[in-house]
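User: structure tokens for this one?
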Amino acid sequence: MSKSPPRNVTRKLIESHLVDGRPEPGAEIALRIDQTLTQDATGTLVMLEFEALGIDRVRTEISAQYVDHNLVQQDHRNADDHLFLRSACRRFGLWYAPPGTGVSHPVHQDAFGRPQRTLLGSDSHTCAAGALGMLAIGAGGLDVALAMGGEPFRFSMPEVRGVRLVGELPDRVSAKDVVLEMLRRHGVSGGLGQVFEYHGPGLERLSVLDRHVIANMGTELGATTTVFPSDAEVRRFLRTRGREDEWTELVADPGAHYDREEEIDLSALEPLIAMPSSPGNVVPVTEVAGQEIYQAYLGSSANPGHRDFAVAAEIVKGKRIPDSVSFDVNPVSRRLLRRLIADGRLGELLAAGARIHQAGCNGCIGMGQAPATGRLSLRTVPRNFPGRSGTREDRVCLVSPETAAASALAGRITDPRTLEPGHSRFAEPDEASPGRSGLVAPLPPREAAEVELEKGPNIVSLPELEELPDELELPVLVRAPDDVSTDEILPAGTRALPDRSNLPAISRFTFRGVDESYVERARELDGGHAVVGGRNYGQGSSREHAALAPRYLGLRVVLARSFARIHRRNLINFGVLPLILDAEDAERIEPGDTLRLRGIHEAIDHGDVVPVVVGKGDADSEIEAKHDLSTRERRIVRDGGLINHARRELVPGSGDRH
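Assistant:
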């Protein structure tokens, strides 16, 4: 009997959950999903979709719903949605984290994270759970709703990039600088179609929450996910959450193969900063030091550890932040807030002039804490897309807690290594405390069956979406630039997100960050329309609204140079056809042109090229647009989206298959 070749951690996770397909790069595979995560900015749609699918109760090991994004209750809308989510959890069998419990990713890691498990979340930073030896993937809500119903998750098998860590981080250089170094090397799309798996001797001094920082921002690289091994440090972490019995070792075999490989010498790193307005715009702090700042901001899913706040408290202890700087502190969970109170760190931050906010996502998603117009805001958040902060002309930079605290003290961008001698190696607290404190457990099935969903006046059922016709004639309404984000297609923040459960209402914000006339022009049309984009179309958040709202307004086709993974999937899930153009053809199409597509069904069923006639009023020309749809995705698009397709597949008598 031949001995199997040595395997990396990613391959072990995939092979142990493989339901269908061959795990070869580029091939479609289907994985069994053990856990799901939803949060309130996406979860209301997920629950409406789960209801629309007609499935009675979740069929996963664990499904959990967190209220962490939409915490500003300026009117009834967010409060009503919280009640709806609570009732949906009671009805469908999910764990529920009420407002104030904390940010979904670190709370889920505390309560449910477990090595050798798969996690699918309707949040693009779900990949943070890879810190525990999980295969954790962000996806659109429809995919998560199906996983809640027991369906496997289908996606293209990624390549596995091994990142070997050696050395030890210098003083006042931290895990955020590691992932910023990866972004400096690879940019915001360098990880497309890949899993980043970290290994090597440099892991020994990185805590689980250090690893969480690196894994969380893997999505900013465009990666499918990030994976770490489950080793002695993971065991220690689970012990501190009262769950050591759930630990299992999961490490790469000696000599394991990686499709690509690179190395980072941690001891050679320096403080880094992503300047406005892209996570990939990374330079050393020393290159931009001295620029005046308006805001320094601690806390988010990207820096959720006790040490991230403790090191900042140590830097500002006994000092005072200038009155020209807004020093915003966002404890990421109630558990962490209690710890910061108990060890005196919160008092040190307050004495220095910190503004303490409730446990949640807050300013990271544009829910308050917006910076002044055109002024630098240094944040420990994962993203700095234009306008995401809530200020249209913002200048947000991504930094480590050390750089944020040092810059807050100085009132200008400051290399934390220039401060008086100190240290940044704060060990995470080792005492055990329950990880599920404050979470509400699912009701037993019999009780759950009696629960009615609480739908406030702003919760509107999803519309029926028609199938893809065989012929389309579509005006081009928008031309989007390279790396356009979902925040620019459908913004977050206090104005738009409270309408996340009301599609007609939230659709009025569509493409607000690209073309403010889009909504009015789309509504004037009797038929559909098309949008043209550049490279990496739809990077960023997993929010389905960025696909569903344009679809509601008549979007049928997006033609782009390339697509971000999750947004591409969301377009397909709502029956929008994503087509790929080469550079020359992309330049030929302008807003106002008319696109004519004929024989669409034959083209997508039996080939990879869709002929498109471009009409410019005085002349027509033909181009060839390509698609990379899998066999299953072709059926979904033709059915008009995943809900229609799933009804045909899962619910007997709901319709004929193609």
